[in-house]
DNA sequence: GGCGATTTGTACGTATGTATT
DNA sequence: GAATACATACGTACAAATCGC
């Protein structure tokens, strides 16, 4: 762990515990540099991350104001997975694997980062239950060239991301997400007990590894009355 | 304009024009530093912005790969306004002001960053038409203490953000956004010709200025079949 | 309003570590 | 193993914004 990462995590922890209260200023960069025994640049790097994630707002000549967004924000706004989400929210949840088989690349993925027609993918369908009701149906398409052994059902029921990152040592890095409303398909209707003329919310993501290779496409179908997405956003000017 | 801002904008432009093709590497940091006549740190600062916005992906020991996300992504994912959105998309659009009056602070805003009961707000309701159909209803609550003169109707029909930033010299900095589905209210039903049991998508935002003062609350009601949200997201580890 | 003191922002140069080819 | 390229870290200097006197 780098110094700036440790310092960033440390300050974040102190904000969450109220040691640095919301609405107040952090100590100055020079004071923090002295306190941690590092250079000012290292403090600035640590603070940059806190600024990006909504923990602080910096203002030239004044200081770093503590905000209170990150503590409420849904991790879904990042790339964080369902499993991490439910852990952080303490809901009663269950996952059922509805399908887990190898298929040729679906048409809408052919051409994406060199995906060829017929290239093998793992097609995984899972239902997510909260308090006894199915509220999400996940469709995952995973590139076999990256995970030759597929995904064991036992893993699919827990967290595929943890498996990829810790067991397979894959670095999941970024994604392009789209949120749209669609009419419920057959699986949605059956699993979530809704009609064919009712809408669900789809969150579609293209997921990439650290070296920018395409790895996974996911389509999450959310029951419309249970869907919520929250994010902290900064205005980009240039 | 700072050096790193100029360089960031310059490289971005060259990516968009295909001078740096998607999937290829940018020149090395040292080469770029020589080319622009700046230090390597300045190049890295410029590249950091391009990485945050989805233009490039950096990899240690290898280089900076050009991505193709930013060119497609909806500006709505930042704080960019409706007017900027329609300009960038070239749709046939129109805005109608349905309401523009001063009201006491609504209950759900009292307590937010020191908002007191009875504190005056401007309540603005606008309908957005595309190709002759109303597809969005915007409800804006603007803090009168920040904009004492309110918003002229002529401005409200174009872009309030441009007015705030250029005329009033306000620095809009960040927002907390929430996306949920709700049943259409009376105004939604009337303006978008939909029934009381149909859903709309609400994008609710708390908007803040550079000094972290709360400035505006907006609730955007989108016709469900016209709604789309897209964003580029990086995985945050710690 | 002006003038310092403080604080953050930018820029540079150097050194060292680490990943990739 | 060598060369290349990115990542971190430090120290310095100056610019720009804020605040209190």
Structural features:
homodimer; 238 residues; alpha+beta; Arc Repressor Mutant, subunit A; Chorismate lyase; 6-stranded antiparallel sheet; two-stranded antiparallel ribbon; 9 strands; globular; DNA-binding; UTRA (chains A, B); DNA binding (chains A, B)
Question: What's the gist of this structure?
Answer:
Chains A, B: Keywords: DNA-binding, Transcription, Transcription regulation. Chains A, B: This is Trehalose operon repressor. The structure is a homodimer of 238-residue chains. Chain A is an alpha+beta fold and 238 residues long.
Number of domain modules of chain A: 2
Give, in spatial order, the strands making up the sheet with the most strands of chain A. 3-4-5-8-7-6
| Assembly state | homodimer
Q: What's the tally of helices of chain A? A: 7
Give the overall silhouette of chain A. globular
CATH architecture of the largest domain in chain A: 3-Layer(aba) Sandwich
Rg over CA atoms of chain A = 21 Å
Question: What would CATH call the class of the largest domain in chain A?
Answer: Alpha Beta
Report the end-to-end length of chain A measured between terminal Cα atoms.
Answer: 32 Å
The portion of residues assigned to helices of chain A is 25-40%
What order do the SSEs of chain A take from the amino end to the carboxyl end, as H and E? HHHEEHEEEHHEHEEE
Number of beta strands of chain A: 9
CATH superfamily of the largest domain in chain A: Chorismate lyase-like
Give the percentage of residues in beta strands of chain A.
25-35%
Give the helix/strand class of chain A. Answer: alpha+beta
Largest sheet descriptor of chain A: 6 strands, antiparallel
CATH topology of the largest domain in chain A: Chorismate lyase
């Amino acid at each position: 762990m780098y110094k700036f990462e440790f310092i960033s995590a440390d300050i974040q922890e102190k904000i969450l515990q109220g040691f640095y209260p919301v609405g107040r200023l952090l100590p100055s960069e020079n004071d923090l540099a002295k306190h941690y025994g590092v250079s000012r640049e290292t403090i600035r790097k640590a603070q940059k991350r806190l600024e990006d994630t909504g923990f602080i707002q910096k203002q030239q000549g004044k200081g770093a104001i503590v905000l209170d967004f990150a503590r409420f924000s849904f991790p879904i706004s990042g790339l964080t997975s369902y499993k991490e989400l439910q852990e952080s929210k303490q809901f009663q949840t269950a996952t059922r694997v509805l399908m887990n088989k190898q298929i040729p690349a679906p048409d809408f993925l052919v051409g994406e980062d060199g995906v060829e027609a017929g290239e093998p993918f793992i097609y995984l369908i899972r239902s997510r239950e909260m308090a006894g009701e199915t509220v999400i149906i996940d469709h995952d398409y995973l590139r076999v060239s990256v995970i030759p052994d597929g995904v064991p059902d036992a893993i699919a029921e827990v967290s595929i991301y943890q498996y990829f990152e810790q067991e397979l040592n894959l670095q999941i890095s970024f994604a392009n997400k789209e949120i749209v409303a669609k009419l419920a398909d057959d699986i949605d209707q059956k699993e979530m007990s809704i009609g064919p003329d009712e809408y669900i919310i789809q969150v579609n993501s293209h997921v990439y590894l650290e070296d920018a290779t395409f790895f996974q496409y996911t389509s999450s179908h959310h029951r419309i009355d249970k869907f919520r997405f929250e994010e902290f956003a900064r205005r980009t000017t240039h």
